[in-house]
Amino acid sequence: MANLSNVELFIRVVEEGSFSATARLLGLTPSAVSRQISQLESELGARLFQRSTRRQSLTEAGNIYLQYARRVCEELDAGQLAVKRLTANPSGLLRVTAEADFALAFIEPLLPEFLALYPDVQLSLHMSTGFQDLIDSSLDLAIRIGHLEDSSLVARKLAQSHSLLCASPGYLAKYGTPKHPNELKSHSCLSFRTQPGINNWCFKIENDAVDVPINGRLSVNGLFFLRNAALNSMGIIMLPKWMICEELQQQRLLPVLQDFPIIPAGTPIHAIFANKRQLAPKVKVFVNFLLKRMRKI
What we know:
Structural class: alpha/beta
Number of strands: 14
Oligomer: single chain
Helix content: 40-55%
Strand content: 15-25%
Distance between the termini: 57 Å
Order of helices and strands: HHHEEHEHEEEEHEEEEHEHEEH
Strand order of the largest sheet: 4-3-5-14-6
């Protein structure tokens, strides 16, 4: 493959009409220009110029090569301009992965506003139930809930997710409102579970962390399913606040046992990047957008 600087010099010699004029323009010696053109001719295996003491002209090979050389340099210029535009303004395809429940409950309602603010950004959102490798999956960003393991990835904390217990007015009217965590043993508690076994909810009771065994006929590994079950008066649930903000405001779900803090007090939510040093504007604006909205949760 020909040296690109020699190709660009070849085009300049054609445009300037001579080696000496090109040398003066670029601050080189005519012999240096001649040497680089000779190197290009050697790489191509063909003469590009017919040279004489008075004039020079392109050979047939030179005319053919000039068309391709100009095309290549024009494409490179266009590519450079495109990259500069991409890095100067939020634009291009933004690939994001997030847990399905969080994506549906929190990100999806915000998308119209974000896309209206940044019309040159296209969003590809992959909803998953597990962690995806950012590099192998060609992802720009991951939103992850929970404590992070050590890795080579870069994380920025967006918020702290706080959970609470709640139930529908219909359920509480029928079965009563528990006043102490121990009373949960006699209630239907809807639990998030991925594996069978004994399930406990942990509370701070008189400065101690106390595990309270819960009973219930329904356990699910999906938060949306649990929320809907609670709305249908099937029992008491523990869910993150970002999941049920609207239901709490409309009093379709009512908080219970607020005098007994849940342990852990909160779960971190992070934005994860493969490399923080060269974050594209599209990634930066999306993270900052989420950061502002998540201050309310």
